[in-house]
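Input sequence (384 aa), recorded before submission:
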Amino acid sequence: MFSRVVSLFVGCFLLLVPLFSCAQSAEPEEMYSRAKVISIDREWTWESDTPEGTDQNFQLYTVEITSGDETGKKVQIQNGARDDQRVTVGETIVITKTVVPPQFRDDMLGGVYHMSDKYRLPSVYGMFAVFFFLTILFARLRGFTSILGLLFSILILSLFVVPHILRGENPLAISVIGALLISIVSMYLAHGFRKRTTIALISTLITIAISAFIAIVFVHWAQLFGLGTEEAFYLQIGVLSTLNLRGLLLGGIIIGALGVLDDITTAQTAAVDEISKANPSLRFEELVKRGHSIGREHITSLVNTLALAYVGASLPLLLIFSAAHSEPLWVLLNREYIIEELVRTLIGSITLILGVPISTLLAALFLRADPHAQPVHSHEGHHH
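Predicted structure, token format:
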């Protein structure tokens, strides 16, 4: 599950890159670049003169631009010095240049510079390097091929799913096609070209089709329109205003469910296969029964894991939810952003639950060993 979560996270991160690129080309007044802090020129505190006010810290510092057309240029920046904005000498940050119209330039040299954000990409690259190293160290060749599957998933999301959705095509249909492509390639890369991988893939495709239908029913039943997040608000502005937000919500749910489903179908299929090999004389019914016994353990553990993963991602939302006392509890629970998260969790859990019996039945049907073989315990007498 962790690899699929990482895949989704990296994919979503890379998917935003074209959007940012479009924003920069469409808004030439905003120019982004990296800059290195070379000196802290002044620090001071503005003291509030009201009892309920809070003091505000400020910094004035000089940076040297290290990317873009203005590489090597030194400029001064002033900003508030909260924990997320305080800088130190030698640190690299992202700055924004707002171009000022000629009639207002005066001595501002054509633009005003602001700190936009911390520059975090090098640390993220380091984290992924650690992740890749540990994956290959412990999983060997399978780890390497699973990383290839991860990269393919990112490519499908960034080069197929997002461009087609941006062109106005149905987000749900595009997401389902993308999910199918990711399943086919990544599962074979991660688990090898084996019969039980094919059974797991077929189980995944069947379950994801059922889940897509359930998602459509649940989203319409709950009267969700994909407007429950701040990101949806921004998607309604400008060239993206024609996007089908409900379809986008459904597509996101399907791709998220796929991350859970991959684990359950491959693990369940492998379990049934190993049980059958350990005791080839097991009948179909007995094999299904033992497979379901293992599957129940998967369900009880992963449902809780899935819920906690969604809760962890929505922790700020929960804090806002807990601190809001201006509305009755039932009104807060009725908000679309709350219902969206509940529906995501429920559909992901239902997908996981359905994946167990489907993969178990198919594995027992097609991976059962020779029924005429002797049971394992019949050879015990040779040890005496």
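Checked by second reader. The first strand starts at residue 30 and ends at 46.
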